[in-house]
Structure formats: structure tokens, C-alpha cells
């Protein structure tokens, strides 16, 4: 495509530009060494600067933005000041990695979850369940979490503080990258290390950290990296119930697979969903709301036959455009994502199957609907080395924030890993019976146990062996036949070893009709970090009006904590009854609203409602009171947060107008056509 | 009142009837002893039986029902079979005290919480927040939970098993009560012990258990009762963060009181609310869903000035009738509740203040709205000895179930206990400034520190004493003045003791104007056990049709997990498109629905939807297909779960008809007037 050709040309230009920079740097150094004239050096420095600017310009074109440009101090200040969130237990000095949601934050979270449920669960008739957070150790042993849910950690050998090894490496090398005089080649090397930091094994990480002489943030020597389990432990009952706070909600679905399958009439495919708390004992929480120890997850497990990962509703998302960063592109010099249609990504085998593709498209639509900016969202495919061995295809939805691109949710084709683990761990049936279109004839090895031969050899001790031999399944029988090919084989049962010889069992090949087979389903798992999505959404919604102190959180009506403010123009007892009437009218129509009559100017109160994201402001003014007294259909002013424009509207038309905008049946523009503008100095 | 007179007359009659029973029992024994004629004994036994029946009849009139009469086996079976709930991790043998909600249970829980939020939070503009479940130890030390959140426990000295002491006593004495030949007097004594079981101190409980020679359920000797803390413990970080899983959600509100007050414009009264998980490490969980270790609470903290507990919306609930069992009535021979209007309960000082009364009435309305039966709900006031020392007035909403009357929520006036505890524990301000109507003149003691006298005595060691003396508040100054009345006093600071004499400080009485005072608010706390309410609601909704095997869960549309089923009359590919069209139509109107096309007779599928509480069933039949083919406005049948009646209704009128019934704007009866009846053999 011409897009790819353009990119190649740009990359070539960038390579040349980088060489030019190196040359100009060398030139300046040479001039300085030979103590050339000041003018001459200045001219060379000028040329070097131009060359560097050219590289920067080209990199801006080639690389996606790596940070959202917002005033983070103003943003953090707003979140705390308006009580969107606050550190938990702050009157007690706080608890690191725990956050509380205040009234606006809590309402936004509730709206986000309600919309998620509407968009995913109800729309597709998923089976939503709600399961325990406290999980017995044996469940998480079977799932692999007790052994493998670790972060590589280093210890500061002087202070004893713990640090996440990959983060420490990223920060340390990040500083090297910022140092003056770094050559483009060195910069490239540092960037690669940062990119790979969370993929390294403990050993690799140790080698790399030694190479760069990484020290702790306090400048002290550090230990070798070692794995630290991230689960919070507890004990249920009186000493006998070692348990963990679940690190994810998904296990609650897997352990209930049998009941869910039955609830679904024993049919595949189907999806289960769950929303709930999960916990991770992060080694050193940082980045505020983005890395916390207690958080809400919304997870879907979509079960399919391993040989049929088509999705019945794929047609409905065929044309959805998504911003994809494939594994292959991440290994390029320029690892930037590409916008393409979902169906094209499938055709080109960038996405592995329809179900994964379907969910990528649905997540794209969901993110757009809640207000994530299109250009600030991409789907990044896991590279081979960051995927678990069993996973078939994994994509993270990454959102651009002031902290960089943040993983806000992931979609993983986990094959039959989880169900197989629990089938083994619990000895439970985790399969679906699938009928063949017609019965099939299969060949089997039939084994007959020769009791007399066994009795003769083992006498009174024969019983366990007899029980064992009669319980073997087809696979085990074939194995035994193989082992006996050499004459005899040892079978260990409890403390006893039985040497079994060829005369003790007889084999015969038989033909058998079977109607179907038991299959352990594969699962595709879209997993949403609700707190992270919420945080990213707030950053995407935040901006300052011309006057930088007037900040706004421009949340969409579906997510906004409160839909309307109701304001008396002045603090005056006469306004009270009408304000209450309007508020009650809105409430009875299901439009959440907040009366703000705390004596400040109307402009200041508008600013306050802008800051907590309320999309509409209704003001009861003197005209309202006058019309009301005269027995007319009184009017109020209705203000749109985003344009700050106002219209004058009869109270009788208020709720229908607002509801129709909230439900996307009409727009604010339509309303400005129907009702006269109202102008004030806001 | 005549009601009270009737009751007194009944009680008198009951007392006489009980004496008669005792007399008749003695008579029978006397006859047996003197070996009277068989006929004579039989006649006396007959009279004894009649007397006993008379007592039973009177007790039925005097005492409220003590158990809901449902087929619990059938009910439990239904809950599991239809996956309303199941024991958590059951494929691993389960985890005692933990339950998962399957699809119908989860949907009911979500609907219940959404309705709760609508009814309490939105209706009254409460400040809802969402706070951490993992709570640092120091927070729960301050709140008193580390010391006092205990259950009295006994240990089986043979098996080592633990039992809740009060439950063991109740069960044990309950068995004594059931034994044949128990006299009415003895029965009365046993009933009193059972009633008081959970009020006894450890010592009292020990004495009572010895008196009745209580043994463990396995018949073994038991230890003395001792307190066992009920919080689940965990550790955050690497070894330094001893924490607990919160035993209630309320502390999350208290520790955020300052921010909430500010969010509310520093005004009282206001209410905050929170919904979330709480945990109790129950000693021996029993009674299934009613006593679990992990559960959802919905709690409200309504903050008021201690001297003004009026409620602005009390007028709206004045006439609400509630079933009240006051503390006073519980001490009567006949401890039955009385129906009265909330305003009368306040006038008669049965309820202590308007805010408590307001919430009792609102809870009554809430419970009725979700479907709790009026006769199965009462509010029981805490008796003096079961209330915490700080509490002013406490009421439990108790619901009648097959396990007896169950506390499903409580309303407690906790005075300023919690905020005072945290003010002290965290050294934080937990008060509201209230202006006086006009400034007041107050007298104060002013203290001047005589530096020269102190310097002369303590020389270089004087500094800490000087710092201490200049930091004293009014209360401490007055105290020091008192202590110095006898000439001198010792002040200990760190390791040093300073003997302070009268010449070191001078006191003067001064007058001062103050504009207001700082007041720590009182709090009224309605606290809802969501799982318990849900369980009680399911019991109240459960019944069997004439055919006992056809059980129904008659949930109201607002709570029902799914509002409509959509059923093809037969399993036939022709029905598919119309069924999907109807389902999509319902979904787009926000009516949740479930297509059931798993090949069984329509009657069996209706039975299945009855069992999961779906109020309406839509069937696409051959007439629908025919009308559809002919291009007519096709009709379907609509079935009402409770009456099992059906109407024939055009698809075009379906959503508006169903929505209007769901939103209580019209009734099923109205629909039967508008559309023709449809009859089949269901």
C-alpha cells in the first residue's frame, strides 16, 4: 500500500538524519579539540541543532505520541479537591496502594459498570455470576497462581526496601536515555532494554542490571532479582483454612464451569461474566490509581470448541476500524500501530481467530462510547516471549495517559489451559460432549486381566494391582501394551512395586461405535481493569478553558456522575420552592441531579459543576419566578457544559429534552434550534 | 385501647389454661400411681389433651408465628438446581461459609442493589462512596473492633472443634424444650434462656451452660466460653502492614467524614452511603446463606447535630404503619409486636427520635416494594442489655423465614461514638462548626508562663517544660490551676519529671467573645445485609402450584432476574427469525429477556421460567408465523406467571404493555381488558 511506502521513505529519511546528527556532533568535537575559532564552532553547533531538530520532527511523524499532554498537577489536584478519589485511610497516614472513591468517583464507577453490563452482558446474554473473593489455597495451587503469580523483585541491600526489578531497570535506563550526549545508537539500545524490561527472566534481568550497574533509587547496591508472590494471604476458620484474596475474578467462573454449562443447556459457545474485587500485593505501588493493591475487575470468559473459534455475531463488527500494534510491528525499528478494519486484520492473520477479533472490535466500540479518544487507544499484541506458553493470541487495549500508554484491559485466547488445570486439580469433569454428525467406528485395544497368572505371582498382595488394572482407560492401556513390548514393566502402587509380565494381561484390537466425544473447551478472556479505564477516561475528559484555572471534566452523559445541576440564580428564599419542584421533576424521570445553593456567584457554581463533569446546568432566575407567579408555564435556562451556551426552555419541556440528548436521540444543537438562546456573562 | 384490653383478657385466659394443663397432668399421674381403671385413666388423658390443645390455640393467637411454613428441602433444591446460588469452590469440596451467586441470583442481587440505590441514595441525594476492604490494624484498633469484635466461643475438649457458645446453648435448651412432659413453667424458663442467649457475658454464659450441663453437639465436654475475634487477618507489603478484611463497611465512611462534610458545603444534616463487601470469620457457619463469612452490606450514615435529630422529610412517612416489638414488650409474658403508625410510635416515645423513625418507615416501604410480606416483617428494638453503652436507640428489621425471625438489617442511633473514636485515634478533626445565633461572651482562664522563675529552677533543662506549658488548651490550663492549688504539682515529660510551683505560672480570668462551637455529630446508621434480605425475599416469593412439584418464585418485576422469556412453540427452524426479532425488540427497550428454545414441551419451559422468577412469558406460535408471512402485524401470546393466564397481543404493542406493568403504571388486569384471552393446556 502507499501508506507502507510512505512509511518506508520516512524511515529511510530518519536513518539518514540520524547519521547526519552523529556526523555534526563529531564535527563540533573535532573543531573544539583543534581549538577552532569561536564563530566556526558556533556555526557547527547551529548545524548540529538543525540536524537534531530534523530527527525530532521525523520521530514525531514515525512514533506514536508517548504521553498525553495534560497539566497533571492541576488534574491530580482536581481529583482530590472534588473528591473523585482520595488515598484510603488518609487521616491515619494512608495505606499505600489503596484508594477510596468519593461521591463523583463512585457515581462514575457505578455508571461505567452499569454501561459495561448493558453493553456486554445484556447485549449478548452472557451468564453473569458473582463469586467469593476469599479463595482456598488448593484452588490457586491448581490454577498455578501459588507458584507463578510473582513479580521479580530486588532488595535494597542497605535500607532493606523492596523494588520491582523491571520498574527499577526502566527508570534507571530511562535516566541514562535523558543524559546529554547520548548517541542515536545508544538511545536505540536503551529503548530496547526499556521495552523488554518486563519480559526478562530473573536471570536475564540480573545480567542486564549488572551490565548497566543498576542501583536502588536511594543509590544503594541491590540484590539479584527474585520472584515474590503477589497474593494477599489470610486464614479462614481457626487455623485450618489457608486462603488468598483472589488475584483475578476469572477463577470464580472456571470452578463453576460445570454448573454454567448445565445452565446453558449443555451447549457451546457461551460466555460467562463477573464483576468484582481482586487484590495484588504490589511490591511498591506507584503511579497513583494505575497500580493499586485492591481493584475492580470485569471479566468475560467466552467458551468455544477448540476447533471452531468463529463468533456468531462477527458480521456485525466486520467494518470496525481499530488501531493495531501487531507483534511483528513491535520488532521493527519503528514500532507504530496501524489503523485497519477488523476483517482485514483477520484476513491478514494478524488476529488469530474471529472470537478474539470480535472482542477487539467490541472493546473499541465500548471505549469510544464511554468517551476514550480514538487516537488515544490502541490494541497491542503480545510478543511470543511475553505470552504464557499455553496462550494462542493476546492483545492489550492500551490507552494514552500522562504516564504513557497504559494497559487498561486485555483479550487473551487461553486455549483449554484453565479448565484442564481445574479438571486435574479437582478431579472434576470440565468437558462438553459433542455428538458426531454420524456415529463413528473407532479401533480400540481391549485388555483382559489374567487373574490366575496374577494370583499365582502375587498371592494375597494381588488385590491393589487387580483394582488398578481394571480401572485403566484407553490411553493407559495402550501405554501398558507399549511398556510390555520389552517383556515386563514395573507398576508402583502405594508402597508396593509390582513387576507385571506379558502373561498377566492379554490385548486384542476391537472395533467400536462411538456417538461423540468429550472436549475441554477453549476460552477467550476479555478482562477489564475498571479503575484503570476510569482513570484514563478522566484524563481524556480533562481540559482547561481559555482561563487555565477553569478546568472541565467533559464526561459523556452516560458516564457523568450527575446529569444535571439545579441552581437558584441567587441565594434567596424565594427560589427554594421552584428549585425543589424542578429537582423533584427530574428525579421522577430518572434524571439524577444536584441542587447547588451554597451562596456563591452563578459563574462560580457553573465552574464547580464543570469540574465534576455535570453535562447540564438548569438555572432558576427572576424570570422563572415572575412567570411562575403569573401562572404561566415558567421557563428556566439550560446550559450545555461543553459549549457553555444557554437556552431558555419551559419547565414542561425540560425532562423530555434532556432525556432525548442523554439517550442520543437528539443533540444539544437540535435543542438550540427549538428554544431561544439565553445570554449572560457566565 | 380495646386492642390492649382484648390482649389482657387473652393472656388471663392463657394463664388459667396453663394451670389447667398442670392440674390435668397431675391428675393423670395420680390415677396411674393408684393404678386406676384403664377407662378412667384414658378419660383423664383425654381431658389433658384437650387442655393442652387449648393452650396451643391461645398461644397461636398471642405469639407471632415463629417459622415460615415452606418446604425447605424443595426450596434448597430449587436454589441449587436453577443455580441461584451454590457453595463456593464446590468442585474442591467447598469452603464453609462462602457462596457464589449463579446467573439468576446475581441478576436478582444486581436489581436489588440498583433499587436500593434508587430508593435511598438518589431519592435523598446521599453521598455514596466506595472504599477499601483491606483495612490497616490501627484503624480498627481506634474503632474498637480489634478488642471487641468477638463471638463467645467454646471448644469441644475431645475433638477440638469450636462452637459459638450462644448457638450451642440455644440448640441444647431447644432440645430440652421439645422433650415430652415439660411443664409450662419449665418451658417458660427455657424460652427465656434462649431469648437471652446472645446477651449473656462470657461469665453468665458459663454459669448457665453449667446449670444445664451443656455438652458439644457430639456429646463431649466443652471449655468455658471465651471471646474469639471474628476478623480475617492479612498482611500488606512485605511484612509491615498488618491489616484486616473489614468487618463492616461503615468505617470507610467515618474515616472520610472530613472530606464528605466539605463536599456537602460544611452543612448538617447529611447522609453518606456505601455498598460493598464485608467479612466475618464465623466460628462455625450454619443456616446456609444466613450466616456467611463474606457478604455484601449496604450502609447509610446519617449525620445530625446531637441536639437536633429531626428529619426534614419526616412528614412524608408520618402515616406509615409498622409492626413494632419494643424493648418494653419483649419483657412481657407475651412478647408480640404491635402495628402502629410511625408518628404514634414517636408520640409515645417508643421510638426515640424522628431520624430513627424516618428510617424505620422508609425501610418498611422498601421491604414492601421489593416483595417482603407485610406480616413477615417486624422491627424489634434492642433491649438495654444488648445495646452498646453508647447507643441511644437500636432497631432490627426482622423477617420471618423457615429458620425463624432473622435480622436482615438494623437501624442504630450510635450517637457520636464512632467519630469521637477516630478523632482520638487519628488526631483528626471530626467536628462541625455551628455558629451561635449571636456571638456569646464566655469566661476563660488565661495563663502566663513565668520564664525567669522556670529558668532559675531548671536551667538548661527548662526547654521541654516551656514548650509543654505554652501548648496547653483551656481544659488543661484549668486542670493545672486546680493541681497547683495545693502548692506544687509534678509534670512528667519523656524521662524527666518537673516539679512545677505556683510562682512559675500566673492565672487570670478573662472574658472572650465566641461566634460558635465545634460539635461532633451524632450518627444514625441503617445497615442492610443484602444477602440476608435476598434470601428472605426468595423464601417469601416461593410457593408450589396445586401440583406440589411445580414450584414458583414469584418475584416482582423490579427484582426478577429477567423480565421476559421468549419461547418458540416448538423446536422448529421456522420460529428462529421471529423469536430473535422479538428478543431484539425487547432488548432495545431495555427489557431483559431470555430465549428458551431447548427442545422441551412449552409447559415444561413455562415451569422452568416460573422457577427462576420470570414474570412474563412470550410465545411465538403458528399463528404468529402465519400472520408474519401474510405481512400482518403479527401477534404472540403473553403469559402472566402468577395467574398463568395468557393474552394474544400484537408484537407492536408488546414492549409498551410490558414496560407499563413493570413501571407500575398499569396492571396485568388492565392488559387482559385490552387484549383477547388465549387459552391452551399449559
Automatic annotation (TrEMBL), chains A, B:
This is glycine--tRNA ligase. SUPFAM superfamilies: Class II aaRS ABD-related, Class II aaRS and biotin synthetases. Coiled coil: none annotated. One of its GO terms (biological process) is mitochondrial glycyl-tRNA aminoacylation. GO terms for molecular function: ATP binding; glycine-tRNA ligase activity. CDD domains: GlyRS-like_core, GlyRS_anticodon. Keywords: Aminoacyl-tRNA synthetase, ATP-binding, Ligase, Nucleotide-binding, Protein biosynthesis. It comes from Vannella robusta. GO terms for cellular component: mitochondrion. Signal peptide: none annotated. Pfam families: HGTP_anticodon, tRNA-synt_2b. Its EC number is 6.1.1.14. Residues 97-557 form the Aminoacyl-transfer RNA synthetases class-II family profile domain. Belongs to the class-II aminoacyl-tRNA synthetase family.
Amino acid at each position: 500500500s502507499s501508506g507502507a511506502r510512505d512509511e518506508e521513505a520516512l524511515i529511510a529519511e530518519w536513518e539518514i538524519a540520524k547519521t547526519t546528527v552523529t556526523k555534526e556532533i563529531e564535527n563540533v568535537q573535532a573543531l573544539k579539540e583543534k581549538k577552532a575559532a569561536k564563530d566556526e564552532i558556533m556555526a557547527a553547533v547551529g548545524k548540529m541543532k538543525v540536524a537534531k531538530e530534523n530527527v525530532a520532527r521525523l520521530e514525531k511523524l514515525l512514533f506514536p505520541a508517548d504521553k498525553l499532554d495534560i497539566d497533571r498537577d492541576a488534574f491530580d489536584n482536581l481529583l482530590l479537591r472534588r473528591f473523585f478519589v482520595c488515598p484510603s485511610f488518609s487521616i491515619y497516614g494512608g495505606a499505600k496502594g489503596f484508594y477510596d472513591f468519593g461521591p463523583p468517583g463512585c457515581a462514575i464507577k457505578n455508571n461505567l459498570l452499569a454501561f459495561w453490563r448493558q453493553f456486554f452482558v445484556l447485549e449478548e446474554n452472557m451468564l453473569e455470576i458473582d463469586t467469593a473473593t476469599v479463595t482456598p489455597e488448593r484452588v490457586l495451587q491448581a490454577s498455578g497462581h501459588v507458584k507463578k503469580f510473582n513479580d521479580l523483585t530486588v532488595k535494597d541491600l542497605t535500607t532493606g526496601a523492596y523494588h520491582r526489578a523491571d520498574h527499577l531497570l526502566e527508570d534507571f535506563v530511562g535516566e541514562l536515555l535523558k543524559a546529554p550526549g547520548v548517541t542515536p545508537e545508544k538511545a536505540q539500545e536503551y529503548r530496547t532494554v526499556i521495552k523488554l524490561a518486563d519480559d526478562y527472566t530473573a536471570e536475564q534481568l540480573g545480567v542486564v542490571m549488572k551490565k548497566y550497574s543498576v542501583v536502588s533509587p536511594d543509590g544503594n547496591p541491590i540484590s539479584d532479582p527474585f520472584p515474590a508472590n503477589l497474593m494477599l494471604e489470610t486464614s479462614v476458620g481457626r487455623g485450618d483454612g489457608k486462603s488468598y484474596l483472589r488475584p483475578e475474578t476469572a477463577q470464580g467462573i472456571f470452578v463453576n464451569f460445570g454448573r454454567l454449562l448445565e445452565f446453558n443447556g449443555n451447549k457451546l459457545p457461551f460466555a460467562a461474566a463477573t464483576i468484582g474485587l481482586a487484590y495484588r500485593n504490589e511490591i511498591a505501588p506507584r503511579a497513583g490509581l494505575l497500580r493499586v493493591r485492591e481493584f475492580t475487575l470485569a471479566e468475560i470468559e467466552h467458551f468455544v470448541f477448540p476447533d471452531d473459534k468463529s463468533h456468531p455475531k462477527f458480521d456485525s463488527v466486520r467494518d470496525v476500524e481499530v488501531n493495531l500494534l501487531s507483534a511483528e510491528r513491535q520488532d521493527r525499528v519503528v514500532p507504530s500501530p496501524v489503523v485497519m478494519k477488523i476483517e482485514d486484520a483477520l484476513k491478514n492473520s494478524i488476529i488469530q481467530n474471529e472470537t478474539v477479533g470480535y472482542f477487539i472490535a467490541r472493546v473499541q466500540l465500548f471505549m469510544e462510547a464511554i468517551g476514550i479518544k480514538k487516537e488515544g487507544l490502541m490494541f497491542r499484541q503480545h510478543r511470543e516471549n511475553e505470552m504464557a506458553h499455553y496462550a494462542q493470541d493476546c492483545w492489550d487495549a492500551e490507552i494514552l495517559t500522562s504516564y504513557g500508554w497504559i494497559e487498561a484491559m486485555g483479550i487473551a485466547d487461553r486455549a483449554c489451559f484453565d479448565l484442564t488445570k481445574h479438571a486435574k486439580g479437582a478431579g472434576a469433569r470440565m468437558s462438553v460432549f459433542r455428538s458426531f454428525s454420524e456415529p463413528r467406528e473407532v479401533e480400540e485395544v481391549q485388555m483382559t486381566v489374567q487373574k490366575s497368572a496374577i494370583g499365582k505371582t502375587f498371592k494375597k498382595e494381588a488385590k491393589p494391582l487387580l483394582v488398578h488394572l481394571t480401572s485403566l482407560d484407553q490411553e493407559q492401556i495402550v501405554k501398558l501394551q507399549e511398556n510390555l513390548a520389552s517383556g515386563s514393566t514395573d507398576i508402583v502402587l502405594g508402597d508396593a512395586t509390582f513387576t507385571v509380565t506379558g502373561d498377566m494381561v492379554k490385548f486384542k484390537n476391537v472395533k467400536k461405535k462411538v456417538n461423540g466425544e468429550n472436549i475441554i473447551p477453549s476460552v477467550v478472556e476479555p478482562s477489564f481493569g475498571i479503575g484503570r479505564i476510569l482513570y484514563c477516561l478522566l484524563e481524556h475528559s480533562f481540559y482547561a478553558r481559555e482561563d487555565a484555572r477553569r478546568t472541565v471534566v467533559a464526561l459523556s452523559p452516560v458516564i457523568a456522575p450527575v446529569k444535571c445541576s439545579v441552581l437558584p440564580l441567587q441565594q434567596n428564599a424565594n427560589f427554594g420552592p421552584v428549585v425543589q419542584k424542578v429537582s423533584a421533576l427530574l428525579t421522577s424521570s430518572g434524571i439524577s441531579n444536584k441542587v447547588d445553593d451554597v451562596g456563591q456567584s452563578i459563574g462560580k457554581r457553573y465552574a464547580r459543576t464543570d469540574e465534576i463533569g455535570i453535562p447540564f446546568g438548569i438555572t432558576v432566575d427572576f424570570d422563572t419566578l415572575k412567570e411562575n407567579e403569573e401562572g404561566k408555564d415558567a421557563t428556566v435556562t439550560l446550559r450545555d457544559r461543553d459549549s457553555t451556551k444557554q437556552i431558555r426552555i419551559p419547565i414542561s419541556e425540560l425532562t423530555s429534552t434532556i432525556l432525548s440528548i442523554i439517550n442520543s436521540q437528539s443533540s444539544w444543537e437540535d435543542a438550540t434550534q427549538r428554544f431561544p438562546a439565553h445570554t449572560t456573562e457566565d
